[in-house]
Amino acid sequence: MPACITTPIYYVNDRPHIGHAYTTTVCDVWARAMRLRGEDVFFLTGTDEHGVKVEKSAAAKGVTPQALADENAAEFRRVLQVFGLSNDDFIRTTEPRHERQVQRFVKRLLDSGAVYLGTFEGWYDEGQEEYYTETKAKELDYKSPISGKPLARATEQNYYFRLSAFQERLERFFAEHPGFVQPDARRNEVLGRLRDGLQDVPMTRTNFTWGIPFPGDEKHVIYVWIDALFNYVTALGMGDPDGSIAPGLHAQRAKYWPAQYHVIGKEILWFHAVIWPALLMALELPLPRCIHAHSFWIADGQKMSKSMGNFVDLPTIEGYFAKYGLDAWRWYMATQGPLQASDSDFRAQHFHDTYTSELVNVVGNCPSRVTAMIGKYFDGAMPEDAARGGEWPARCAQAVTAWTRAIDELDLVAAANAPMALLRDVDAFINRTEPFKVAKDPARAGELASILAQCAEAVRIAGVLLEPFLPGKMAELDAALGTPGGAVRTFSARTVWGALPPGTRLAKCALFPRVEAAKA
Ligand code: ME8
User: Hey, which CATH number is domain 347-495, 1.20.1250.20, 3.20.20.140, 1.10.730.10, 3.30.1240.10?
Assistant: First the structure.
């Protein structure tokens, strides 16, 4: 079945940093894992380019908002390339294909009665461009939960989305789809806030102009959040079934909707878990299957901020690439990151220790031991295993099943652990069977062949499962294990026991060099 995964679209008034790199890497690992399984995946990311924040940043720099957007969108694109991320499209909200579809969607909402012109008064968080109810504002002590700045009392005549009309349908939807918001802690927050009751939300602005004009009343621009949420469907041509805006888009991509995962940070959950589903309900479009709201990277125990100088920005990340390699960075993001309900602390020492204990000592060392012994005792040729794998075929099948289930649930830690545990078992098997001692007794040559063939085969299968995390290094391992290149290799063919024929030439491999300890 076709599957789609999305990142948030990132604001162009900021430079790319660890947060953006993180969410995009999580999606990339999932997309690669699904493609490895032979699934048809669409991986979407992009930039959010309208709104007062971009307008103000541009004014402060003395450039037009479009010029600022062009410059920073190009930077986000460049970063995707540097990181080797495998997105299928990069959508920008200033592109005509997006703007025109958004106008169509909004017109449909207006025609259906889900949107009306009204006057609104509320507490406004300028940084977040979000309104709060009196109850919520009071709870927040009338301060922005993000920036800490005071909320402003604001009145506006605007077009409103009748969110309140969707209260019951949303409650029913949540009850019927317990996995819709992940992790559970986040789902509970949404349910709690939903119980407070929904209010209609303004969906236009008149106090600035950098946005998509509201169809039929152009002194209003469409609120940046409404504009932005629609990226998930405009990229797939869902607002353009006849292909008159972007020929071919809908025909090729409509099959990817609804998205399997919208992966986001927890600060933007309300928009994704409540407003977005209500908009889709109003448009009679299917709802995404899961909103996964991860937590935050913090640094050295504190919230990252530019003013405190602990922000893990792009130059810092590139420093890690230079020292440890790109795959090591991906590994740390995917296995130590805040995918679940708690924040993750980014520490140079922890990065280093994870690299050494997992990548050097296990993922690097285990294949290196196995290929070195096959080099030494069998002249680099895959030995013949008369015992046909012994316990190993079942052990490997179990790892493949655990990995597959974990990928289905976007549980990257469990997915990484399945092949890691396999490699650790191979190490333990080597320590127990002591092939280096067996090798000294010519009468035990058959036993030696079985041990090493079994190790090589298990290492190969673990390598396949590690590929989405460590694509560069696992391609090296694949090559070292002499796996036939060029052939069409399905996931089941690659993970089945015995795919490495006896006699295959295996090369020694050193995947992760030891690196000097990080400086404090
Ligand atoms: O909110 N740790 O864009 P944005 C982990 N344009 N992830 C982090 C992070 C951190 N410390 N900081 C940021 C927007 N992120 C809107 C989204 S979607 C229709 C519109 C990640 O540039 C995380 O995914 O502020 C978060 O949700 C996103 O960056 C916010 O990016």
Answer: 1.10.730.10
Q: Identify the pLDDT of residue 258.
A: 98
Pairing of strands 115-125, 152-161: antiparallel
Going from the Cα of 355 to the center of ligand 1, the distance in angstroms, rounded, reads 26
Model confidence, pTM: 0.94
Cα 301 to averaged position of ligand 1 atoms, centre (Å):
19
Tell which one of 6, 9, 22, 27 to mutate to probe ligand 1, the residue whose CB is within 8 A of the most ligand atoms: 22
Strands 291-294 and 181-182: parallel
pLDDT of residue 488: 64
Give the H or E element holding residue 6. Answer: strand 3-11
Domain ranges of the chain: 347-495
pLDDT of 207: 85
* Residue type for position 76: F
pLDDT at 482: 85
* Cα 291 from Cα 232, distance rounded (Å): 12
Q: Is the beta carbon of 435 within 6 A of some atom in ligand 1? A: no
Does the CB atom of residue 159 touch ligand 1 within 6 A? no
Q: Residue 512 C-alpha to ligand 1 middle, in angstroms?
A: 31
pLDDT at 520: 46
pLDDT at 518: 63
Q: How many Å lie between the centroid of ligand 1 and the Cα of residue 54? A: 15
Number of H helices, E strands in the chain: 22, 14
Contacts of 274 (CB under 8 A, 6+ apart): 163, 170, 190, 193, 194, 198
| Ligand 1 centroid, distance to 118 Cα (angstroms) | 31
Q: Which stretches of the chain drop beneath a pLDDT of 70? A: 484-488, 518-520
